[in-house]
Amino acid sequence: MNKAFPPLPFGSERADLDKSPLEIRGLLSQPIWRELRTFLAVAKSPSFAQAAELLGTSAPTVSRDVKRLQDQMGSQLVISTFSGVTLTETGRKLAIQVAELDFQLFSLSNDLKDEMDAVTGRVAVSVTSGLAVAIVAPAVPRLNDNYPRLNLDIREQVSLVNFEKNQADLMISLSPISRADVDCVEIGTLHLIPIASRDYLKKSGVPQRQFISQHIYVQCNYYASEREIWDGWRGLVEAGHQTHNCENSLAYFALVRNGAGVGLLGNYVLADPELVPLDLGVHVALPIYLISVANRRQSRPVAAVYDWIVEIFRTNPSFSSRLTFPSGRHEQEESLRRMLETIAPPPPSQFG
Name one GO molecular function term (predicted). Predict the structure, then answer.
């Protein structure tokens, strides 16, 4: 007759009672990883000097590491004499366990390296020239570090609304696409605001809402649409003096930065200290989408680039849902500032 067990007090639905070690913030070992590696080198060597040579450090450093480890463990692990070092019984047991852990870490490292090396091939990304130069291209070295055999093909957008015309694996777009065979994910917000260079402000004064007609505005073909979202900017241009018109976003940026007039630019360019935001009652917020053919992301290279693009936009404070201004404290802002200066260095000012 089978013995009857009483009802179990807890079931599998209580996941909070069976946590993963990663979920327990305070569950960390003592800070002895470095000392354990030093100890393993000592266990494999006849002296502190030879262990130091193996580690690329000095014998006194090895001796200090071993002493710290013994203090942390509360047990003697090594006996040092003039003829060399030997392990105590406790030290020998620990050395065997540390050697097994070291081999597991070595194997894991090789597996990760093999996984990175396996991500190889070309991935085409379609993006506007402004975002390509200011945001995507500067982040490519980080992609190289993780996937050295990946080849990124950055392409100018032939169409802002048609994915297929751009002939790319991925498209960074300001227009969403709703189709069953296409993935369209919002990755940030592009904030367009009136901006002028300090050189322009010295010559023409700071534009104010009641004196809009006294200032010069540079128009971009993209902003000439009859869509309601552009009404505010179009009103400024029509009320003032339009001097130049430009389609290329880099040339448009260069015109504004060199004092040709007030332009509508992304807030991220304010990482350049020569540019100043203007309070003229215009703020165009455009969601940024990352578009891909759904089954194309099954390719490991495409998936790697996809994740990388999502990260560079979602971690950049300029592309958050709320309008912010670059603080200069972020490394990516400083990098962008230096890059913008090389694109369009300001002319020598005639004003002090």
Answer: DNA binding
Pairing of strands 182-197, 121-127: unpaired
Residues 260/216, Cβ–Cβ less than 8 Å:
yes
Q: φ and ψ at 61, to 5 degrees?
A: -65, -40
CA end-to-end distance (rounded Å), the chain: 101
pTM over cut 0.85: no
Read off the amino acid at residue 114.
D
Cα–Cα distance for residue pair 95/72, rounded to 1 Å: 15
CB 263 within 8 A of CB 130: no
Chain CA centroid to CA 281, Å:
31
DSSP per residue, 57-102: S-HHHHHHHHHHHHHHHTS--EEEETTEEEE-HHHHHHHHHHHHHH
| pLDDT digit string, tens, across residues 154-186 | 998 888 888 888 888 999 999 998 888 889 999
pLDDT in the model for residue 349: 45
Q: Which domains does the chain have, with CATH numbers?
A: 24-117 (1.10.10.10), 121-188+287-322 (3.40.190.10), 191-284 (3.40.190.10)
Do the Cβ atoms of 39 and 69 come closer than 8 Å?
yes
Q: Kindly report, residue by residue over 241-264, the tens digit of the pLDDT.
A: 878 888 888 899 999 999 999 999
